[in-house]
Amino acid sequence: MKRTTGQDRSITRHWRPATQAVRGGTWRSEMGETSEALFLTSGYTYDNAATVAARFAGEEDGMTYSRLQNPTVQMLEERIALLEGAEACRAQASGMAAMTTALLCQLSAGDHVVAAKAAFGSCRWLVDHLLPRFGITGTTIDANDNAAWEAAIRPNTKVFFFESPANPTMDVVDLEFICSLARQHGIVTVVDNAFATSALQKPMAFGADVVAYSATKMMDGQGRVLAGAVCGSDDFINNTLLPFQRNTGPNIAPFNAWVVLKGLETLDLRIFRQSENALQVATFLEGRVPRVRYPFLASHPQHALAIKQMKAGGSILSLELDGGRAEAHGLLDALQLIDISNNIGDSRSLMCHPASSTHHGVGPETRADMGVGENMLRLNVGLEDPQDVIDDLDQALCAIGL
């Protein structure tokens, strides 16, 4: 493999995001292909035994095994790092593999984590159930309460873990304040940025140490593959995260990495159009349902903060009805265009009832603590004409008497 002319990191890091999304991290073989090559191989051959020894000893660059390196995967990692403004990135098998790796690679028995109580169901499960099995305690707090973060710090607190915007409550966390507080106390911030992606929000610009992703969502953008990523400093990625990943194996498949590479080429175009569509849909819903949560609506409690931290509001919103699960399920069943699906970030509009899907596994008490009620629905607004999405919601609301 050879790299294309101009792929020196000192040059590519100065490219603007739209250029990085198309060309960043590109390698080319001697064939001179324009589209990134797909390397479906688990292993590699060597010219001689000395080369093998030198590569495994870290004395020579080169591939050894696809659990450690793969050309297609490394292209994805370089591109995501460039877009994020991070020194390094490691791709993962899924978003939850990324979250689990980002936490477990740096935590040990006796450590303590402070986490936002509003989170994706599986992320909350990590804090409440998985980490305690290894002697790692956690405190969940209202992430919107800056004072609560400081009050929750203990002498053994090692990590702050949160999403912004949060899934599905759309809570927006004060990145600058929380990351600064963490730095003052020697605490590592791990931020799940899947709802915004680096196209709309760059947590590291506000002081975050580690940014984790479900690349299944906006990065792929078309509901095709599972993928994840963790970004951070060279030291964190190579000396803290990589030993964990090397020996536990939550690796992304080369084909999935290739698909996400193709998705990144249109990320900027998709996420801004979907944000425009979502704002139109949210504005319509605000006049029809009891409550709508979308960061770029003036009615959002952290609207000013969202404007400060994000370039647009993203494709996701949540809404609440008064009739509980029965009414929420009735609305879903009345939809004609929007699909019932628990995925997000897709180019298609999708809607789900979190309490009976994405957050079912955490239980009713935890859902109540998170603010995920039986009356809540989450909507991913896609690339369809927004008026068609609005028309579908309008007829579905009429069908249930709203």
Please describe the structure with a list of short key phrases separated by commas or semicolons.
Aspartate Aminotransferase, domain 2; alpha/beta; 14 strands; Aspartate Aminotransferase, domain 1; 40% helix; 2 domains; 402 residues
Helix content: 40-55%
**Spatial strand order of the main sheet:** 3-9-8-7-6-4-5
Low-confidence runs: 1-6
Helix count from the secondary structure assignment: 16
End-to-end Cα distance, whole Å, is 60 Å
Tally the beta strands. 14
Q: Helix/strand-derived class?
A: alpha/beta
Mean pLDDT: 94
CATH architecture of the largest domain: 3-Layer(aba) Sandwich
What is the CATH class of the largest domain? Alpha Beta
CA-based gyration radius:
22 Å
Task: Give me the CATH fold name of the largest domain.
Answer: Aspartate Aminotransferase, domain 2
Biggest beta-sheet profile? 7 strands, mixed
Q: How many separate domains make up the residues? A: 2
Approximate strand percentage: 5-15%
- Order of helix and strand elements from N to C terminus: EHHEHHEHEHEHEHEHEEHHHEHEHEEHEH
Any idea what the shape is? globular
- For CATH, the homologous superfamily of the largest domain is named as Type I PLP-dependent aspartate aminotransferase-like (Major domain)
What's a concise summary of this model?
The protein has 402 residues and is of the alpha/beta class.
Structural features, described:
The structure is a single chain. The termini are far apart. Helix content is 40%, strand content 15%. Helix 2 packs antiparallel against helix 4 (71-84), helix 4 packs parallel to helix 11 (254-264) and helix 5 runs parallel beside helix 6 (121-133). The chain folds into 2 domains: 2-264, Type I PLP-dependent aspartate aminotransferase-like (Major domain) (Aspartate Aminotransferase, domain 2); 268-399, Aspartate Aminotransferase, domain 1 (Alpha-Beta Complex). The strands form 3 sheets. The chain has a 7-stranded mixed sheet with strand order 3-9-8-7-6-4-5, sandwiched between helices. By secondary structure, the chain is of the alpha/beta class.
